[in-house]
Each structure stands twice: as C-alpha cells, then as structure tokens.
Write a structure and sequence with these properties.
seven-stranded antiparallel beta sheet, 3 domains, NADH Oxidase, alpha+beta, 14 strands, 37% helix, 370 residues, disordered N terminus, Outer Surface Protein A, domain 3
C-alpha cells in the first residue's frame, strides 16, 4: 500500500488517482469514553478513533478521490498523517471504491428495509446474515454440539428451565396436560371449523385446563451431562427444549378464581398467586365483565444459554407464537372467545403489572380470554 488510493489488487497505473472512494454503507459510529467507535455491521469489525480520524472518514460520505482530499492539507506533516490514515481505512475496508459490490449490496438492503420503516431491523439483518451457523446435515455436527454444551456446562451450570415458586395454600392445582389434551381432541377438531357458539363463561376450571394444555409439562428427561438441568417436553414445541416462554393470568370476575395475578408453574402444574393486586383499570380497558388476560413473557437467558448466536432473540418470538396459537385453539375448544393483543399493551406497563425486570424476563404478547 505504498500509493494513496490503491485498493488491494488494483491497477497502479496513472489512473489510480482518479478512483472515487466512499465510506462503506455498512459503517456506523457511536460515541464511547475514549473517543468514537467505528464499526462495520456486515463484517462485525470495529475500532476506536479520535475526532480528527472520524471527520476524515465522514469526508468520504460522498464519493471523493484522494487527491481531492489532499488539496485541503498544505503542510507535509498533515498530509503524511492523512495519507497514513486513508491507507489504514482502506486496508480495514471502511473506505472502498465507489463501485464496490458489498457497498452497493448494503445500500440496496438498507434502502429496502428503510422504505418499510424497518431501518434498525435491516441493520440487525446485516450484522447477522453471514454468522457461521452449523450444518446439522453433517454427521460430525451432532458430536460437536454435545461437546459445545459440555463446555458451556463446565463454565456455568444449566439449572434454569422453568420459573419456580414455593408451594402455598392458595395455589390452584391444574389438571395434568395429558388429560387436557385427551379431553380436548374432539373439541379441538370441532373448534377448528369456527362454527361453534363461543359464549361459554370463563371459569377457574377452564383457565386451569387452558394453562395446563398450553404450557404444561408432558415429560422430564434427565441428561447424562454434568451440570445440566433435565430436558423438559411441553405441549408446545421449543428449540433445544429451552422453553423460555412463561405464562401469567390477570383475572377478574371469574367463577371459582379470585381477582388477581397468577403465574402458571409448569413443573408443578399449578396457578400460583403473585403478590400483586389486579390493576384496577384492566376490566374497563378491555370491555368485558368476566375474563382473563394471559400475558406471555420470555426468560431471555434460558434461551441464550444454548443459542448464543446473534439471531437468538428472534427465536423467543417463535416460541411464544407456538404457545399463542395453542392458547387460542384451547380457548375455542372451551367455548371462549380470545383475542391477540399485538401492540395493544406497552411492554413496560405489562412488566410493571408482573413486577418483572425486563432485562431478565420481558413481555412478548398477551391474549384476552372471555
């Protein structure tokens, strides 16, 4: 890289000074304690620079030849520093020729996502697209996966598969999920036709059965590896048997179940009362005299213990989606109406109802049952 403006592998003839260089479209900046962090979303590389270097990079937001830039620096020392910095930014891939294919591709992706109001989601996509995922079609991958989990467990025990509570006299015992699924088979088949009169009042028994049928534990299997919690199989599927989704009920006017906030403890199959009063605005807000609000949350660490790649956050939504559909099928089978409340509840208010730390366990979705 003895010449300013020479790309790796470029022609070093007299035309090299005419190359238009541009700041790569995947470049982002953020203020940090020691200066500015400069990083590329698509390659997940970055470093810390001072303000002069940041301004130099920003000068290339519009295509620019290096001689055009050098015209603004008259002293030999300043010019030498600029040349050195430009060469370094070229080597690191932050300054690229205007026609660079990856720059063009990122520009197109960013424009497409931004057009739909999803710019941040587009950036997340750029940062995770080329993550080196394992190919489970390869016969050796299964052994590597087991070895990886063994190493995880040696560093940090995996003991957290379900939220637990000490038993109390106020716990409401729910029927076993296998019993619920057996009883619901015919009702579910009829319910799928959507031709039933959904006017059966919500009751404590129906809510207990619904929670067991949607979130109940079918089987617990002990794992041979040390420091590993038993694998849990529930009525709704979950990647790696992680089951990050938890279910809470806010109930009002329900026969045989007091007004309040309840958590479904899956391993004991009970509704456990949370020491938190029912928010007084809830019944009027949803316009029903008798009903329940089923709030689904995600315990993020439970999922991330196994799935540590950058896309793991999207899987908790898939997990909750399975549970949501099961809940609505069961509600129909019981003769209840149900309504998903996507966007109808702010996460921070739901988390305050349940006294949750959103960085540990956060709101995902809610279903009104009435």
């Amino acid at each position: 890289m003895g010449l300013i403006g020479v790309a790796p592998g470029a022609d070093t003839s007299g035309r090299v000074s005419e190359i238009l260089w541009v700041l790569h479209a995947a470049s982002r900046f953020s203020r940090v304690a020691r200066g500015w962090q400069v990083y590329r979303l698509d390659t997940r590389t970055g470093f810390i620079v001072g303000e002069p270097e940041l301004l130099l990079l920003l000068a290339f937001e519009s295509p620019l030849t290096v001689p055009e830039l050098e015209m603004h620096f008259v002293t030999p020392i300043a010019l030498a520093r600029v040349r050195s910095a430009v060469i370094r930014f070229q080597e690191l891939g932050f300054l690229v020729p205007q026609q660079d294919p990856s720059h063009d591709s990122v520009q197109q992706v960013t424009a497409d996502w931004t057009k739909h109001g999803w710019r941040r989601a587009g950036e997340y996509c750029l940062a995770t697209t080329d993550y080196p995922y394992w190919d489970y079609a390869d016969a050796t991958t299964a052994h590597a996966d087991i070895e990886m989990m063994r190493e995880y467990a040696e560093r940090e025990p995996d003991i957290f598969r379900s939220n637990e509570h000490l038993p109390t006299d106020d716990d409401r015992v729910c029927p076993p999920p296998k019993q619920i699924l057996s009883e619901m088979t015919l009702s579910l088949q009829r319910g799928m036709t959507r031709d039933r009169e959904l006017s059966t009042p919500v009751s404590g028994d129906s809510l207990a059965g619904l929670m067991s049928g949607a979130l109940g534990v079918l089987r617990i299997r002990k794992l041979r590896q040390a420091n590993r919690a038993p694998a849990i199989r529930k009525t709704s599927p979950s990647g790696g048997s992680r089951h990050p989704t938890e279910g809470y009920l806010l109930t009002w006017g329900v026969d045989d179940l007091s007004n309040g906030v309840w958590h479904f403890c899956a391993t004991r199959s009970v509704l456990h009362p949370i020491d938190q009063p029912l928010p007084p605005e809830i019944p009027a807000r949803f316009g029903v005299d008798t009903g329940a609000l089923l709030v689904l949350t995600s315990v993020f660490e439970r999922n991330m213990y196994r799935y540590r790649e950058p896309r793991t956050f999207r899987t908790v939504w898939l997990d909750a989606g399975h549970v949501t559909e099961t809940v609505q099928l069961l509600a129909t089978a019981y003769g209840h109406q149900s309504r998903r409340l996507y966007g109808g509840i702010r996460p921070e208010e739901a988390e305050s109802w349940l006294r949750l730390d959103p960085y540990v366990e956060g709101f995902i979705n809610a279903i009104l049952i009435y």
